[in-house]
From TrEMBL:
Name of the protein in question: Condensation domain-containing protein
GO MF terms held by the record: N-acetyltransferase activity
Coiled coil regions in record: none
Taxonomic superkingdom: Eukaryota
Length: 491
């Protein structure tokens, strides 16, 4: 009898096995089980003309369709800290265990709470969760091992379609997972990530060259990584650039042959340079911009997957914004779409030693002062008489060894179809940029003086800055963007 039961259990485990995790996926899962990261989050505020609430009767049938459409939402990780870590199929998902309805949280508070939570890898639960606020804002928290920033947009787009097409009815929380699901391949199986000899040489040089000969010797990157890992406390500030300003900003970017991403990049570098002007030690700004690999891998924007890399640069500290700099960086980013794959291929040279590699960052200088991640345009076309998305925000964690702060940008493009709705649409086309600037602190008392504290902005590493974090972020994005729109440059 015991052998028979064991045999059935082994067969069930074999039936659930999907595939081993890939290079980038192991990178992200290692950060999580070490307590260096938690999740990627994105919120969408849903609305109807008659102000219908998002109850279980409405949401659960729609979520059931979303789950069936995306295999990544149907899996869990087995043996996450071992060399044989793999994705396995869940047999069912109980939505009552991963969907929470709360009326009392503000969006900023809710995002901070989500970013402070990892996932229970021992539980028979998927690698994502949902929080629904009283104003119909749906917050997705997703493990980076199954989804990147664009995956959060794909989720909300899929949920919007389901809300529009699935009838209200069966509010049962149980979702059965078919045994025929197939996961998308890891990114290294979808595109060539093999590093060039020049990339290998550059990385080896960074490891062994004397510090005074490296690019980051005089680059600002915030305060050092805490020497001891701790909690995942995160500060989030949400800023909105008004629709007319964004429309004008996009127009002037095109005029100067640049992009929204490269313009924001140049603005951040210029403004950080101003804040650092009194410290002669800093000659450059350590900067990182996220790059999606979906195009080079032939992957759809509707997929939920982990296909992302980044481009790191050390622009000279220069307090004067100019469009030539922004245009040059736009050109550089376009060329990096293929080159950025090589950083994933470099992970092979860790030979599985991800844990000591990541722990080796503790107590060291940060690799980046800021990370800019722009999801691009979320095309949420407005349809009369049904569900629509009227607001979108995304943010990410990586609080321990990541950049001193992150600027996460989501652009919601709303186009009214048929007659205008009684929704907050000022015109047939409306652009709204929600900038989620997250400044992070380890939650422990010991870390407060090492890293960033909301009421002590000097800890961020900006000398002679008296504004609080929200004012700094507002200055960077609202003021700088408006100046650029109206004057064509930063005075």
């Amino acid at each position: 009898m015991w052998l028979s039961i064991r045999k059935r259990r082994d067969q069930m485990a074999a039936d659930s096995y999907l595939r081993p995790i890939g290079l980038l996926e192991r990178f992200h899962t290692t950060r999580n089980f070490l307590g260096f990261d938690s999740c990627v989050v994105a919120s969408g505020k849903y609305a109807t003309q008659d102000s219908l609430p998002l109850t279980k009767d409405v949401l659960f049938p729609a979520l059931r369709e979303v789950i069936k459409a995306h295999p990544s939402l149907c899996v869990r990780l087995k043996n996450e800290s071992c060399s044989n870590a793999a994705f396995t199929r869940l047999h069912n998902i109980d939505l009552s265990h991963i969907v929470e309805f709360r009326d009392d949280d503000s969006l900023e508070t809710a995002l901070e709470s989500q970013l402070a939570q990892g996932f229970d890898m021992d539980a028979d639960l998927p690698l994502w969760r949902i929080q629904v606020l009283g104003d119909n804002t749906v917050i997705l928290g997703i493990h980076h091992v199954i989804g990147d920033g664009l995956s959060t947009i794909a989720f909300h787009a899929s949920l919007l379609r389901a809300l529009r097409n699935v009838p209200i009815g069966d509010a049962s929380p149980l979702v059965q997972i078919p045994d025929t699901i197939t996961l998308l391949p890891p990114v290294e199986a979808a595109t060539n990530v093999r590093p060039s000899l020049s990339t290998i040489f550059d990385e080896v040089y960074k490891l062994f060259a004397p510090k005074y000969l490296t690019s980051d010797r005089s680059a600002w990157s915030g305060n050092p990584v805490p020497s001891v890992s701790g909690g995942l406390r995160t500060h989030v500030r949400l800023l909105a650039i008004p629709a007319p300003d964004v429309t004008a900003f996009c127009t002037i970017c095109r005029t100067h042959r640049t992009t929204l991403t490269s313009a924001f990049y140049a603005l951040i570098v210029a403004l950080l340079s101003r804040m650092l002007a009194d410290d002669s030690h800093y000659k450059s700004i350590s900067s990182t911009v996220a790059i999606s690999l979906r195009g080079t891998a032939g992957m759809s924007g509707d997929a939920i997957c982990d296909y992302v890399s980044a481009h790191r640069t050390y622009p000279p500290a220069n307090a004067n914004f100019n469009w030539t700099t922004a245009a040059r960086y736009a050109t550089k980013l376009r060329k990096q779409k293929r080159k950025a794959r090589e950083s994933i291929g470099m992970l092979r040279f860790l030979f599985g030693n991800y844990v000591p590699y990541m722990r080796g960052h503790l107590g060291k200088k940060r690799a980046s002062g800021f990370v800019l991640s722009n999801l691009g345009r979320f095309d949420a076309r407005t349809v009369e008489g049904t569900w629509n998305i009227v607001n979108a925000v995304f943010a990410q964690c990586d609080v321990m060894v990541g950049a001193a702060f992150k600027m996460n940008v989501a652009t919601l493009w709303l186009v009214t179809q048929l007659a205008p709705l009684s929704l907050p649409l000022s015109a047939q086309k409306k652009f709204a940029v929600k900038v989620s600037g997250a400044l992070y602190t380890n939650g422990s008392e010991a870390a407060r003086n090492e890293f960033i504290w909301l009421q002590e902005p000097a800890c961020v590493g900006f000398p002679n800055v008296t504004q609080d974090v929200q004012t700094v972020l507002a200055y960077i994005f609202r003021k700088a963007a408006v100046y650029a729109v109206r004057a064509g440059s930063i005075a």
